[in-house]
Amino acid sequence: MKPYKTLLILLVFLVFLFGPSFFLDGPVKILPGLSVELPESGDLNRYLDNFKSFRSSHPDGDSPIIDSPTPEPDSALFLPGNLIPARHSSHLFTSDSGAALGLFIDSLRMRSGQTRIMYYGDSQLEGDRITDYLRKELRTITGGTGPGLLSPTMLVPYTRTAHLRSSSNWQRFNYLSYRNGEIDHNNLGPLFSISRFETGAGSSYKTGAWVRVAPSNSADSHAATYNKLRLFYGNLTDTLVINILENKFITHIDTLYPLAGINEYSAVLNNPRDIEIRFTGNNSPDIYGISIESENGLVVDNIPSRGSAGYEFSLVGRDNLRELYSSLSPGMIILHYGLNVVLSNRDNFKFYEEGIYRQLVTLKEICPDALLLVIGVTDMAKSDETGIHSYQNIPLIRDAQKSAALRAGAMFWDSWQAMG
Q1: How far apart are alpha carbons 138 and 104 in whole angstroms?
Q2: How far is the C-alpha of 248 from the C-alpha of 246, rounded, in Å?
Q3: Cβ of 399: how many Cβ atoms within 10 Å?
Q4: Helix axes 3-22, 131-142, angle to 10 degrees
């Protein structure tokens, strides 16, 4: 699908996302055919009274139960009736389903500190094409800087947000590497891959490696501002020296010592135009990711998996993933998959529903404080002698994703319906 069409869908999603939060301060804004389903259709005043009562009586984000019915939604957005985040993500309260995203956005306006959205998907996300737009729009509300999580071995190193370059001795390992015996564990972290550098006689770099990151030409001022660097690593068996260069000048020199388990190294940056990280050591740790971000505001991570149907969450080490999610503390996790299933010539996608359901159940278990959103499969066409036609199984795949999301207590955005 053309990138501009995907962005158009996301624009509709953003309008819908912001809609509930507008209820508090002005007139209701509803797109024709895409309105939020409110409790007892038309009874907006009671909905507002309940919501305002919550805000006035629970300024610190306590978790009341608002007694109101939850009708079956009739729009592109579907939400479970029992999953509404309060201002502190560690609390949940039950309310009418139409308020969930509005409360999330409302919390972005008011909260201090950092909020993280981790956006997973297939190759539609490569190059930061969708997440760059989402990041820009939400940062008009929240602020925040940097491109978020990056890998030294990114498949698409030049994105709409950042340009990453690295030395030639890096290697990338994923679940297939584990299955094929190239690595002896599947502790692959939130990027579903780890990076290691080679050293010694067979490598062009005998004692280390480097990674450079700079804003791309299309990066906006927020994304091009680098305030903080976080390095997530594990399996460090030997001393590792880290040099950080900001605008080609060394500003940090630190030594990491062998430690078991997952570790984090962080450094405050002075808003450089570009940074370079030099690793010097005889053995590489497992690098789970490098995050360039800010202490406050919004961070949106772009995490594409080429050719994926979205099954990776249950394929990687669960304890490893749980610990890294705990460090990253995402407020929302978005799953945007489906196009790689379309070519499967079936008339029943129950298997896919169960696969996505397993991912969501896994996420709810290991990252219980995050709001989960599934974005359904978009349209996809093929051409023949009679013209261009949508694949007939797309509604079945959409239904499978929707059913999995609602069964698991996640939200669902119907991209296919939104496209008309």
Answers
A1: 11
A2: 5
A3: 16
A4: 30
> pTM here?
0.78
Q: What are phi and psi of 204, to 5 degrees?
A: -75, -15
pLDDT digits (tens, 9 = 90+) for 84-109: 333 333 222 222 334 556 666 666 66
Residue 155 one-letter amino acid: L
Region of 265 please: left (phi>0), alpha (psi -120 to 50) or beta: beta
Q: What is the spatial distance between Cα 38 and Cα 52, in angstroms, rounded to a whole number?
A: 15
Q: What is residue 44's three-state secondary structure? A: helix
Q: 43 with 69: CB under 8 angstroms?
A: no
- Give mean pLDDT, residues 196-201: 87
Three-state secondary structure call for residue 22: helix
The string of DSSP codes covering 393-418 is: THHHHHHHHHHHHHHHT-EEE-HHHH
More confident residue, 363 or 75: 363
Establish how many alpha carbons lie within 13 A of residue 179's alpha carbon, considering only the half-sphere containing its beta carbon.
6
Q: How far is residue 180's CA from residue 343's CA, in Å, rounded to a whole number?
A: 26
Q: Report CA 62 to chain centroid distance, whole Å.
A: 26
Query: What are φ and ψ of residue 228, in 5° steps?
Result: -150, 140
Q: Which segments of 308-392 does DSSP mark as H helices, in order?
A: 318-328, 350-366
Question: What distance in Å separates the CA atoms of residue 96 and residue 80, rounded to the nearest whole number?
Answer: 9
CA distance 155 to 153: 6
- Residues 118 and 167: their CA atoms lie apart, in Å, by 27
- In 204-339, at which residue ranges do the beta strands (DSSP E only) sit? 208-215, 228-236, 240-246, 249-256, 259-268, 275-280, 286-293, 297-304, 332-336
Higher-confidence position of 92 and 340: 340
For the chain, the distance separating the N- and C-terminal CA atoms, rounded to the nearest angstrom, is: 15
Residue found by looking up tokens 């660097």 in the block: 229
Cβ-based neighbours of 86, under 8 Å, separated by 6 or more: 58, 61, 62, 63, 92, 93, 103, 107
Whole-angstrom Cα distance, residue 364 to residue 408? 8
Q: Residue 13: what residue type?
A: F
Kindly report the number of other CB atoms within 10 A of residue 242's CB atom: 20
CA angle (364, 188, 398) in 5-degree steps: 45
What is the per-residue burial (b if ≥16 Cβ within 10 Å, else e) of 166-200? bbebbebbbbebbeeeebeebbbbbbbbbbbbbbe
What pLDDT score does 417 carry?
A: 83
Tens digits of residue pLDDT in 272-288: 999 999 999 999 999 99
